[in-house]
Write a structure and sequence with these properties.
Layout: E1 5-12, H1 17-30, E2 34-40, E3 49-57, E4 71-74, H2 77-83, E5 92-96, E6 112-116, H3 118-124, H4 131-143, H5 148-165, H6 168-187
Parallel strand pairs: 1-4, 4-5, 5-6
Antiparallel strand pairs: 1-3, 2-3
Helix pairs in contact: 1-4, 1-5, 3-4, 4-6, 5-6
Length: 188
């Protein structure tokens, strides 16, 4: 990994994009990499678009914000519109395929666009609460910024207290990471 990988993850408040970025940053730190995460919340108090800016690399990272992302993930129609400005010809743009009528709003200049059914998979196969962990798996697979093993360790660190109370949650979250990785593999 040469220069820092620039990642923007955007969604509606409550979709867990900040948690995902935090866990990935933690995993990168545990692997001895530099990670810089900065949250950006919409101007609305509640229900605004939330964007997590994340950079991961081998060298110290100079600036927390960036103009264009290597990967941009948008989890709602408003997030798709808000993040187009961070896309250029080398960007991988990932969005949830269950967002209706969004085709015209997708960035035409993206290097590649991947549609993944994360909401559908979380509802029908796993649990709606692990939607953001599916997204985390997708980001990890698309970028290779951290290993699946380190991501699991970081999730364990962040959610371990919940796993103690309900051990089935551990398996559910780990399944969600793997499922997110599979969805990106299929979409490519």
């Amino acid at each position: 990994m040469g220069k820092a990988v620039k990642i923007a993850i955007a969604g509606e408040g409550g979709q867990g994009v900040q948690s995902v970025a935090e866990i990935i940053a933690e995993a990168a730190n545990e692997e001895g990499r530099e990670a810089l995460y900065i949250p950006n919340f919409g101007v609305e108090q509640r229900g605004g678009v939330s964007i997590a800016f994340l950079q991961i690399g081998e060298e110290p990272i100079g600036s927390p914000k960036f103009q264009k992302g290597d990967i941009v993930v948008a989890l709602s129609d408003r997030a798709v519109r808000r993040t187009r400005q961070y896309v250029n010809g080398t960007t991988t743009f990932v969005y949830d395929s269950s967002i209706e009528g969004i085709e015209d709003d997708l960035p035409k200049n993206a290097g590649r666009i991947l549609a993944i059914p994360a909401i559908e998979v979380s509802k029908n196969e796993l649990h709606p609460r692990v939607f953001n962990i599916i997204i985390m798996g997708a980001v990890i697979k698309a970028t290779g910024v951290v290993s699946e093993e380190e991501a699991r360790t970081a999730i364990e660190k962040k959610l371990g207290y919940k796993f103690e109370q309900d051990p089935t949650l551990r398996e559910l979250n780990f399944k969600a990471i793997s499922r997110g990785m599979e969805l990106v593999e299929k979409a490519q």
